[in-house]
Amino acid sequence: MNADILRITEPPTLLREQAFERLREAIITGHFAPGARLIERELCEAMGVSRTSIREVLRRLEAERLIQVEPRRGPTVARVSRKQAAEIYDMRATLEAMLMERFTLKATEEEIAVLRGIFEEVVAAAETENVRELIAIMTRFILHVAHVVDHEVIRDILQQLIARISFLRGLSMSKPGRIHESIGEIRAIVEAVERRDPEAAARNAAHYVQNAGAAALSRLDEAQTHGNESGAGLRAQERRQATAKPVRTL
Predict the structure, then answer these.
(1) Does residue 63 sit in the same domain as residue 148?
(2) Segments in the chain below pLDDT 50
(3) Angstrom distance (rounded) from CA 28 to CA 18
(4) Same domain for 87 and 211?
């Protein structure tokens, strides 16, 4: 475990909240792989916080479905199945298209300017392919839209899914070329909003989410294939060892 990624150096005020945000970010950005065990003692040492604080952090992460507690294994980073990922992207495409349509109709010029400013931050972060920063900025992008639209049910759904959306966003961005492809798609959304074209804004939002979903699902498929190949290789090795003739000694 790379302790530097998790180490908290800020003053002890709100230490538990800082621990939660740091560990949450480490999971979302892939520092801890799906299925990885989270050992309390190691986390305490890496982050410099008490076991009580770590346990509270783990409970909150479990509530966000970023971790799961398995019998005899303890807390592990949750796996997102292909089916779950596809369902999340289907829902996102519908909800975000609706949000962008309503934002285009409702937002003031100042609120649209804020959206443009957030997009320019996305462009800057994409230049260095800073996935952690991109995830945070894109979260602000859609939450700004949701705040302006003020649709409580959609906002609640997005808040419940935000951690898993962020994890999948990182997965999608890991596909070569996806970050730079997405810039053109997001730009099309922003420009449609600025033209006050709600249908184009909704259509472009759905297109962006669908392409992001395809990239994330592709990465999940690759991971599954790699896992199957590794498992098959290990089983073949075990069979060879089991059937190998013993070496005779003189």
Answers:
(1) no
(2) 13, 230-250
(3) 15
(4) yes
